[in-house]
């Protein structure tokens, strides 16, 4: 370049202002890809008026924050799909309520308790939901539990006496993602001798539904009760058989307390398989880990146990190895923590255990029993719902060659005999965080067996009482061995357990009658984890809050947000975080028995009789529950795709 040209170029350069370092940084930032920085839920206020207390209520929104500083708000609403009393035409050609149980012949069961009125039983207790992933033909199905019927038409308690049921609903999605019911049908359990108290449930990685059978009838009571002095457990299983089979002689406690798997075909037809090799207990829920082999269970009740199952093959729960946990406490602070060791109970196939049951095996075939300490007998204390020895110490001796029968038909008793911890109280929901290899367990009430008690046969757990309960985190790892030194063939073995969210009991009830802090959890029950939201959702079943809540807990920020309250006296059930169904996200959320046990609360801010009157007018107290979902959540995967698409055009 000539000198004259150089001078001209320099002059031109001096005319163009140089970018200030801050401006240059901003320009560089502007060219960066915008991403989602965080996702959070706003905290819904607790209901304060009778109108708010007697309906599903939320003021929450999802807040999506982007790396460019912008935010977007998505308000949430509650959508009802149907009440348990709503009637539908079923595949058997009959029209009856969704919550009506059916018998062995798939006919609706008639409630003859009210003289002169032939009506069907109708459950007021919808529980678990599994919104299945869409079938290849695009069909979308929802499986729902009906846990029990609170009262018959004569007003008598019906819990466990009435056979339970499930429905399968075919759903349609609108353009905005709202769900609409096309059909509702009952699922037949005639191949599995009926369904006993199905509580929570889960969706497997292979798109089948795992149900549950809670509060298993006690085989010891059933065998030894006298005709003139039946325990509640025995009376219930006999009433169940009379209504289901039409013959109380077919009553058998070993039919129940297992995990039913529901397989759904593309046309909506269902097939049920009951898994006996997973063990028998008070099954709240069974949740399968990402390896599609390892599973954990909620064992509800008092003096219960933490179990782990490892299937022989992925996606096949028909055979496997069952383990029970020993809890070694390391701290009693903030809900407590401890290490976990695993005791192998045994290996079995469904076929083997079913053959034992079908052969007529009895409790006395498995154990010898003593009412007092005796040489060769082991003292255990465990939960069997309402048995004649409920809350008492048992002295048991295993009969020769009955190890497998004990492990899979009396899993908790046998586990306690081998040294596993049978002191958990109200162990409820289970959820898995696959990315972090964590399992979450809800303990609705830290008391009784979880408190220090020198009178118990063992006292592994010694925690301070918190009636409001806590949620615990279990850390999973591989290359573990059982307490007898055998390798555990799983990469998802829990080795520690610690409380991460703890409720707070109040010394005196507040103005609404709440016995626990309304800004913290109380009676955590249903759990479900969203990978997209990095959030653990918690549904309550509490006698501590007059309105039970659904909470969102971000596992990264540790922020706890109330996102829904259900009608006073109702339990928040059916919780399922659904990250994506045809590009839409949902939180499935039911509620059961609105208006129940409200006399246990003594509010001064509202008149409890006015609350009951309003609930009774809308649902009927202990008459109807609701199947529904929380609507308005953004689909995170869709938002991320839209961001990339927008920026690719720039």
From TrEMBL:
SUPFAM superfamilies xref list: YWTD domain
Keywords: Signal
Superkingdom of this protein's organism: Bacteria
InterPro entries: PhoX
Signal peptide: 1-20
UniProt keyword Signal, yes or no: yes
Protein name: Putative phosphatase
